[in-house]
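Could you join me in thinking about how sequence relates to backbone shape in a protein? Label the sequence line and the structure token line clearly, so we can match residues to local backbone shapes. Once you have written the record down, we can walk along the chain together.
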Amino acid sequence: MIFASDLDRTLIYSRNSMGEGIPEDELMPVELYNNEVLSFMTVQSLTLLKEISDIATFIPVTTRTIEQYQRIFGIKDTFSPKYAITSNGGNILIDGTPDQEWASLVQTAMLTSAEHQEIKELFDTLSTPDWALRGRLCDGMFYTIIIDRNIMPEEVLDSLRDQLSLLGWSISVQGRKMYLIPSRINKGDALRYIMDRLGTSYVAAAGDSLLDESLLAVADYAIAPGHGELFNVYAASNIYKFTTSAGIRASEELLLGIKQEMRLLASLVDG
């Protein structure tokens, strides 16, 4: 069995995203950068994740670059996952080292999408400095752009989405971050690659953004937090199972549900 989960705003939370009224003694630091704690999990979430890791292969999945993923000591060091998916599926780490076979497959897949320079030129023609504050090319694959969501025109977002689709790219907006990513780079394909290596068929997965849809589509049991991009788009439908909790409490609820689901499956197999 595999448990594949997005990290930010699914398992780990900044102070701005965790919600209000969380007692300090329930929080455990999990990310450190320049001697500053950036992200947390609750004690209960860490306990539940450890229990899940005892019965399943835990695979962290993130749009973060390799460097950014390595800051999350509470995941990387505590659980020492053999496999991790970073760069939105652009990189697979095996024991902390990028898998070169997967890297070659990704480079071939990216040939069907427009070059990143063309995407940058398109974005520059549609954006203005008042809301597109700064951005960078990540791992030579995709763009992360810091935006002022309050003043970004919706019609620009719609135009970007339509034009990027024609060029083989996709867009995701999560809080103050906008991601422009080749459509062939996705978390679901990376997870299928690992599943083939492990010979594993059962997967539970969790994620909060549109970039997690490919991941959730692979899963036999999929759940999303009651907040974020997926919740905003699909809350009124029956496409995804959402937690009733939002913020950092959502991680506790989804992990408990996954633990119960996996233990039930294990008992049926044993029986």
Notes: DSSP finds ten helices and 13 strands in the chain. The mean pLDDT is 95.
